[in-house]
Design goal:
alpha/beta, 6-stranded mixed beta sheet, 26% strand, globular
C-alpha cells in the first residue's frame, strides 16, 4: 500500500492543473491516477475536427504557455500534445492505465482501490474525471421502437460515415453547431434545438471575446443565473453560420418523439426514411453545450435517418436564424 499527500483522479486538464498547483497548498507527495494509456483525459477521444473557441492565449494551464500563435484557435490534437508535454514537466507521480474502482474514507484517511487490486491512501483526494467517460443517452419517447442504432456524440469522429444520409443534430451549443456544419456538405442535415441559436460574435472590434471579458471583468461578474436563462452562446466569426446557410442545414424546434423510421416534430411534421436500406442513428451531442433534460424534454440528440435515394434531399424551409472548438467545441481552461 502506497501513501500520498494528495491523490488526483484523472489526468485531463483539471487533474493536471490541480497537480501543478497542489504544492502551493502544502501537498508534497502528489499521485495522479489515469485510466488511459497516456495523460490527456478525454481530449484524444473527441471528434477529429474539434477546435477550441478560446484562443491559445487563454487556453494555457498554470505555469506553461500554450505554444505557437497566441491568437489562433488550437485544434484537438494540439491540445492533446500540449497536455502530454505539460504532464511530463510536472513533479507529480502520474500512473496511467490505472482505473480506480473505489474510494472510501476511514478515520480521516482516504483509501483508493484500483481494478488490479492495488490500494493507495492519502489525506486528500481530488476527483477530476469529468463526465465524458459515462455518456448519457436519454430515454426518448419511441426509442424502443426506433429502427436504427443509437450513437452518442462521444463516439462521433467525422462526417464520412454519414455521407448521403438524412441527419438531425440536436443541440444548440458550439460542438453541435460544428458537427452540423461539417455534416451539411455530405448529408441532408437538420439542426434541432429548444431555443434559437445564440450567435455571439467571436471577435468584436477585432479582439477575441475572451479578451473583452477579461479586461472588462465581466468574466467574474455574477451573471451566471441570468445567462442560464438565455440561449447557449455560440461563438462564431461567421464561418459556421455561413456553412449552415450554404449547405441548407435546417434549424427546427426539438422533435417530440422517435418512430420506427424517423422523428416527429412538435407541430406534427414527420421526417423519416424512404426504403429498407437506411440506417437510423440517434446520438446525444454532449459537446453541444446543452445538458440532458428529462426524457419528456430531450435535447442534445443526433438522429441520422438514413441515406435517401440518390443525392441528399434539401428541404425548402432552410433557416439560419458557442470555450474545448472559426469556433466550436470546448474551451481548454
Amino acid at each position: 500500500m502506497e501513501h500520498a499527500d494528495l491523490i488526483v483522479l484523472g489526468a485531463g486538464q483539471s487533474g493536471l492543473a490541480t497537480a501543478a498547483l497542489a504544492p502551493r497548498h502544502g501537498f508534497t507527495r502528489i499521485l495522479v491516477l489515469e485510466g488511459a494509456e497516456e495523460p490527456g483525459g478525454s481530449w484524444p477521444r473527441y471528434y477529429d475536427s474539434l477546435t477550441l473557441f478560446s484562443p491559445a492565449r487563454y487556453s494555457s494551464l498554470p505555469g506553461m504557455r500554450f505554444p505557437g500563435d497566441l491568437d489562433r484557435y488550437p485544434r484537438r490534437d494540439e491540445v492533446v500534445g500540449y497536455l502530454r508535454d505539460y504532464a511530463r514537466r510536472l513533479s507529480a507521480d502520474i500512473r496511467t492505465s490505472t482505473t480506480v474502482t473505489a474510494v472510501t474514507r476511514q478515520d480521516g484517511t482516504w483509501s483508493v482501490r484500483t481494478d488490479d487490486g492495488r490500494e493507495f491512501t492519502a489525506r486528500a483526494v481530488m476527483a477530476a474525471t469529468g463526465d465524458y467517460g459515462a455518456p448519457f443517452v436519454p430515454d426518448v419517447i419511441g426509442r424502443v421502437d426506433f429502427g436504427g442504432r443509437v450513437l452518442h456524440a462521444a463516439h462521433y469522429r467525422s462526417p464520412d460515415a454519414f455521407a448521403g444520409q438524412r441527419v438531425v443534430v440536436v443541440g444548440g451549443g458550439n460542438s453541435a453547431i460544428q458537427i452540423a456544419a461539417e455534416l451539411g456538405p455530405v448529408a441532408d442535415t437538420t439542426l434541432a434545438t429548444r431555443r434559437p441559436i445564440g450567435w455571439t460574435p467571436q471577435r468584436p472590434l477585432g479582439r477575441d471575446l475572451h479578451w473583452w471579458l477579461k479586461h472588462t471583468r465581466l468574466d467574474v461578474a455574477p451573471f451566471r443565473r441570468l445567462l442560464a436563462k438565455g440561449p447557449v452562446s455560440v461563438l462564431d466569426d461567421g464561418h459556421y453560420r455561413t456553412a449552415l446557410d450554404q449547405h441548407g442545414v435546417d434549424r427546427r424546434d426539438i422533435f417530440s418523439r422517435l418512430t420506427t423510421d424517423g422523428v416527429v416534430y412538435a407541430d406534427g411534421t414527420k421526417a423519416g426514411v424512404e426504403d429498407d436500406e437506411v440506417e437510423l442513428v440517434a446520438a446525444q451531442v454532449v459537446l453541444g453545450g446543452e445538458s440532458c433534460p428529462p426524457p419528456s424534454t430531450t435535447t442534445s440528440t443526433v438522429c441520422v435517418t438514413g441515406p435517401s435515394s440518390g443525392s441528399p434531399r434539401r428541404t425548402s424551409c432552410a433557416r439560419r436564424a458557442r470555450r474545448r472548438p472559426g469556433q466550436s467545441g470546448r474551451a481548454l481552461q
